[in-house]
Amino acid sequence: MTDDLLARHRAVLPSWMPLYYAEPIELVSGSGRRVVDAQGRSYLDFFGGVLTNMIGYDIPEIREAVERQLATGIVHSSTLYLIRQQVELAEKIAQRSGIADARVFFTNSGTEANEAALLVATNHRRSHQILAVRNSYHGRSYAAMGVTGNRNWSASAFNPLQVAWLHSGDRVRGLLARLSAEEQVDAAVEDLREVLATQTAGDVAALIAEPIQGVGGFVHPPDGLFAGWKKVLDEHGILFIADEVQTGWGRTGEHFWGYQAHGVTPDLLTFAKGIGNGFALAGVVGRAEVLQAVPAISFSTFGGNPISTAAGNAVLDYLIEHDLQANAARVGAILADGLRSAVGGLDCVAEVRGKGLMLGVEFVRPGTSEPDPALTNQVFEACRSGGLLAGKGGLYGNVLRMGPPLTLTEEEAHEGLAILVDAIRSSAGVAA
Fold first, then answer.
1. CA 85 to the chain's CA centroid
2. Apex CA 57: angle with CA 53 and CA 62, to 5°?
3. A GO molecular-function term, please (predicted)?
């Protein structure tokens, strides 16, 4: 029984590991974009294991690729040996990264990928000074937490890095929120120059930034901001790290990588989540001269293992063959336009934002910009009651997050939209 499993969970797992819903659920099977819980209730999944089950559930091409590797008897060999699946996937990612003369280092998670990028950048620049963005999230290890600009996710004040903070792209609150997009870019670039002049010793290693902030509630700056920032970075030789853990692989619809909306190319790019479709697979790709700036032996025991990279190859091939980036743009527009039309005008909805299949709705107390996490949780629970799984996020826990599999159909988009609209309007006390 789920209740028994919940009690067992609480008896052996730490209390700081959150569980969704007032009555937590166990997912026991899945197919396509739907999952079934231990009570037999089916849900349309709009969160995909936190944007990780990117292709959906029980996809034959991925299952068969993994089964072929399992049949060889080699689940693990370590990277001390050649791994064909790893090399093939690295070739594909390097070619698609947009980075010239690229090298790829595989890890198991986005946290490890960002940790590796920070290791490389600080070695290359011989400096532990980092620029990071407020409201960001980059992982749970010491260095990754050190560049995370969200105190809810910073479990330790210890930091091996010296960090200076830049403004986020928040359009609801903050010093830059009241500005137009063009003015916001100009102000953010001016702020970067001032931060470099006042908060650093000059020899900064890198700026790390998410094109769209995941845990931060899908906040994103105006297109072109990274180009403005990079012009300043290049003047000082500072590296740019694009954290594409949630924005990569065409999820934004308009581009394969989130950074491409800004007309720049990063020195390092981190990836994770969707590329494994549930298998532990992540990594960093960057210019050879930068990525190879590690003055000692380093490798990841499980990073790029035969099973995960077999899955990764199948995922990337499926993604490209089915043009899921175009699908993300198409069905994402159904959701975004539908939400803005049906609930965007409510006085409790501060903003409907995002790109492609990475969408958020921010809730506030009516007529203010004051966050309303209680209403957000009501909507969240109402979605579940209606048969839809969504996510939560934002600095104040007041953003409903949607990151469905990129295989979402138009029919499923309309189905999910109807549940979302009903959940929001009923929770806000608005008649249907």
1. 25
2. 85
3. alanine-glyoxylate transaminase activity
Could you tell me if 22 and 98 lie in one domain? no
In the numeric block, the tokens 């501060």 are attached to: 350
Do 279 and 347 belong together in one domain?
no
Token pair in block for residue 85: 């699946």
Closest CA to 275 of 319, 243, 242, 307: 319
Backbone angles phi, psi at 100, to 5 degrees: -70, 145
Domain boundary among 289, 322, 355: 322
Q: How many domains does the chain have?
A: 2
For the chain, what is the largest distance between any 2 Cα atoms, rounded to a whole number of angstroms?
64
User: Closest Cα to residue 364, out of 378, 351, 348?
Assistant: 348
* Strand ranges, E, within 110-190: 129-133, 162-166
Task: Kindly state whether residues 216 and 297 are assigned to the same domain.
Answer: yes
Residue ranges making up the domain that contains 413: 5-58+327-428
Amino acid at 112: E
Residue of 145, 130, 43, 120 lying closest to 288 (CA atoms)? 120
Same domain, 334 and 199: no
The CATH number assigned to the domain holding 311 equals: 3.40.640.10
Contact, 247 vs 257, CB < 8 A? yes
- φ and ψ at residue 422, rounded to 5 degrees: -65, -40
* Torsion over CA: 153, 157, 161, 167 (sign): positive
Which of 273, 293, 322 terminates a domain? The answer is 322
Tokens at residue 221, please? 């700056």
97 Cβ contact list (under 8 Å, min separation 6): 257, 269, 285
pTM: 0.96
Residue 187, phi then psi, degrees to nearest 5: -65, -40
CA separation for the pair 411, 406 (Å, rounded)? 14
Residue labelled with tokens 């993994």? 66
The whole-angstrom separation of Cα 284 and Cα 243 is 9
CATH code, domain carrying 9: 3.90.1150.10
